[in-house]
Amino acid sequence: MTLGQVRDMLFWCSVINYALLIVWVVFYLLPHEWHYRLTARLFRVSPEQYGTLNLAGIGLYKLGIWMFNIIPYIALRIIG
């Protein structure tokens, strides 16, 4: 793989991951009650735990996108 191909791959991975992140946030915000009821039946979590787990998951996912996609992409842009 060439440097340009790796850069392009990291760029598209970032775009796809951010699209998934946006879907997760929208799914968390808009049908909040419906999704909580489904989650509470399956995993027996309280409303506070549900919110905490979702926000922590969103934050960790965003951090992972930055660490594994965006920062390496920027580094490759700088050296390339």
Brief write-up:
This protein has 80 residues and is mostly helical.
- Number of E strands: 0
Helical content band: over 70%
Task: List the helices and strands in order.
Answer: HHH
Question: Spans with pLDDT under 50 lasting ≥5 residues?
Answer: none
Topology:
Layout: H1 3-29, H2 32-43, H3 47-79
Helix pairs in contact: 1-3
Structure description:
By secondary structure, the protein is an all-alpha fold. The protein has one domain. The protein is built from three helices and no strands. It has helices at about 5-30, 30-45, 45-80. The chain is elongated. The model has no long low-confidence stretch (mean pLDDT about 95).
Features:
90% helix, 80 residues, mainly alpha, 0% strand
